[in-house]
Amino acid sequence: MATIHVETKKKMVELPIDALHKLAALATSKGISVKKYMESILLDKAYTMKRDQNPSPSNDPYFDDPHNIERIMESARQAQEGKTVELTPELRKKLFGDL
User: Fold this and answer.
1) Residue 81 Ramachandran class (φ > 0 left, ψ -120 to 50 alpha, else beta)
2) Among 39, 66, 44, 40, which residue's Cα sits nearest to residue 55?
3) Mean pLDDT in the chain?
4) Is 10 exposed, middle or buried (0-12, 13-18, 19+ CB in 10 A)?
5) More confident residue, 28 or 43
6) What pLDDT was estimated at residue 54?
7) 75 with 65: CB under 8 angstroms?
8) Is the pLDDT of residue 6 over 80?
9) CA 7 to mean position of chain CA atoms
10) What are phi and psi of 40, to 5 degrees?
């Protein structure tokens, strides 16, 4: 039998207590843990969101351009790989002077 490995990452999330109580009640009604219930909600949302759906809450047209999204994704990949340079005040002054 073949084994499929799916890469995962842990992320701490802080929620208001009343929201957690509501989530706990909904999870209990489904017979699953709160953690599993929250994961299912988030995964469902992530997998049903259209690739071309504008992620901006204000529907900013910048995000309608696929090239902008590609650049954001490429920048995120570079940051994860440590291929970034911190723009310190000193470096900014050196690069841009008094602009």
Assistant:
1) alpha
2) 66
3) 85
4) exposed
5) 28
6) 72
7) no
8) no
9) 15
10) -65, -40
44-52 average pLDDT score: 72
Q: Are 61 and 68 spatial neighbours (Cβ–Cβ below 8 Å)?
A: no
Task: Give the pLDDT of residue 51.
Answer: 58
pLDDT for the residue 2 = 63
How many residues are given for the chain? 99
- pTM of structure: 0.46
One-character DSSP codes across 49-77: S-TTS---TT--GGGGSHHHHHHHHHHHH
The CA R_g of the chain, rounded to the nearest whole Å, is: 20
Within 13 Å and on the Cβ side, how many CA atoms surround 71?
7
SS (H, E, C) 27-40: HHHHCCCHHHHHHH
Structure token pair of residue 13: 């999330």
